[in-house]
């Protein structure tokens, strides 16, 4: 049998893909075991029926053939208008490529920005797929660590040290997994590094509608940055359309032209009836996005309240997104061991911090994606479990 390409076999860098606890939890559920799944960012309230009705009507009306590869003019105009209104940066359909979800957009952005073998910076902790996405695009991931005591915000000096020779810098604000929202000072430091080392900036902004403290600022809106920034967006989180696979890239017009060529030989566009449903959803404006986001802001507050008085668990208070990162180092376990033990003992599944890079070691990420009372009960159980481990002799906690 011929050998497979190293680009495929090396996607995980010879290690884990970070999803073991998720797979274990799903296997238990498939066997009929009840598990409280707090692993992935999947809304418990599914896509609004009105959006599905619009999708159904578009399909029945015949929008089921090949759609225009860059996206329909109507949807590209709607995305451009949303971006221009929220950022103040002039944006037209020529700056927009519609993609099959944000993940596809991340891959395409790195193909666009990174020559084969080039280092590509990514701020750590990072979404679990980022390193594999970079490797799949033919580049080499170069993580830039952050520290819990700094709120997991990137440090200018660390970025400057990592930047020589790199082609791009990937950041995510609001951040998955930490919930950090990068303020102007942080983003100005990022912009300074990008300009000093002539980097492309890839900005993953799929959580821009979920901000609990502060305000979302797109680095594309900073002076001089629109010419070197590619913004990844998606309907998945803002409109609970995860399974519809509808996202976009906003970039300089010349970049979009080349990305259309890439889409032509890879995805060949997004189904037209899904694009029509996205247009319907975007036309409802911030009110719909607010309704989708509201449960996560409410649950965030309830989780932080439930953790009060528990010494072995410390929350990293999230400013945005649909997760809470918990520091469990006081238990004597790393994040992976704690998550595995919690699943075994209480059938509660959370993501180990190590899934998001070494900077999150000793942490776990809790997704705020089950109804309030069930979530609070699970977090209280998690905290009590952590307290019991912290009180146990350290050798027993590690066994």
TrEMBL record:
Q: What are the Aminotransferase class I/classII large domain coordinates in residue numbering? A: 34-381
Superkingdom of the source species: Bacteria
Query: What is the designated name of this protein?
Result: Aminotransferase
Family according to the record: Belongs to the class-I pyridoxal-phosphate-dependent aminotransferase family.
Record-linked Gene3D superfamilies: Type I PLP-dependent aspartate aminotransferase-like (Major domain)
- Please give the CDD domains that the UniProt record associates with this protein: AAT_like
EC code(s) of this entry: 2.6.1.-
Q: Catalysed reaction per UniProt?
A: L-aspartate + 2-oxoglutarate = oxaloacetate + L-glutamate
* A GO term for molecular function: L-aspartate:2-oxoglutarate aminotransferase activity
Pfam families associated with the record: Aminotran_1_2
**Native organism taxonomy:** Bacteria, Pseudomonadati, Pseudomonadota, Alphaproteobacteria, Rhodobacterales
Instruction: Fetch the SUPFAM superfamilies from UniProt.
Output: PLP-dependent transferases
* Listed cofactors: pyridoxal 5'-phosphate
Q: Which UniProt keywords apply?
A: Aminotransferase, Pyridoxal phosphate, Transferase
What PROSITE patterns does this protein's entry cite? Answer: AA_TRANSFER_CLASS_1
Residue ranges annotated as transmembrane are none
The GO annotation for biological process reads: amino acid metabolic process
């Amino acid at each position: 049998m011929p050998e497979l390409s190293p680009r495929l076999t090396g996607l995980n860098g010879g290690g884990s893909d970070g999803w073991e606890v998720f797979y274990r939890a799903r296997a238990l559920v498939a066997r009929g075991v009840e598990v409280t799944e707090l692993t992935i960012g999947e809304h418990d309230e599914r896509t609004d029926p009105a959006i599905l009705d619009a999708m159904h009507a578009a399909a029945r009306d015949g929008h089921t053939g090949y759609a225009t590869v860059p996206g329909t003019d109507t949807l590209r105009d709607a995305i451009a208008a949303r971006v221009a209104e929220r950022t103040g940066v002039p944006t037209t359909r020529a700056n927009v490529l519609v993609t099959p979800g944000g993940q596809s957009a991340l891959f395409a952005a790195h193909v666009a920005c990174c020559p084969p073998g080039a280092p590509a910076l990514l701020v750590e902790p990072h979404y679990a797929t980022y390193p594999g996405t970079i490797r799949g695009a033919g580049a080499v991931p170069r993580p830039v660590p952050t520290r819990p005591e700094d709120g997991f915000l990137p440090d200018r000096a660390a970025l400057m040290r990592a930047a020589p020779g790199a082609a791009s810098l990937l950041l995510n604000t609001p951040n998955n997994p930490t919930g950090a929202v990068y303020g102007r000072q942080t983003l100005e430091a990022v912009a300074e590094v990008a300009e000093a080392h002539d980097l492309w900036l890839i900005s993953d902004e799929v959580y821009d509608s979920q901000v609990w403290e502060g305000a979302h600022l797109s680095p594309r809106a900073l002076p001089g940055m629109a010419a070197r920034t590619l913004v990844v967006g998606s309907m998945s989180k803002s409109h609970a359309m995860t399974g519809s696979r509808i996202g976009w890239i906003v970039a300089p017009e010349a970049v979009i032209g080349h990305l259309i060529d890439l889409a032509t030989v890879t995805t060949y566009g997004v189904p037209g009836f899904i694009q029509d449903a996205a247009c319907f959803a975007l036309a409802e404006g911030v009110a719909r996005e607010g309704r989708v986001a509201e449960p996560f802001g409410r649950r965030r507050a309830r989780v932080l309240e439930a953790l009060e008085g528990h010494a072995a668990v410390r929350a990293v208070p999230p400013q945005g997104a649909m997760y809470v990162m918990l520091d469990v180092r006081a238990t004597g376990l790393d994040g992976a061991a704690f998550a595995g033990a919690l699943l075994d003992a209480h059938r509660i599944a959370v993501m180990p911090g190590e899934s998001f890079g070494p900077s999150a070691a000793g942490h776990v990420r809790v997704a705020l994606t089950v109804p309030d009372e069930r979530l609070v009960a699970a977090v209280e159980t998690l905290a009590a479990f952590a307290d019991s481990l912290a009180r146990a002799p350290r050798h027993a906690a590690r066994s």
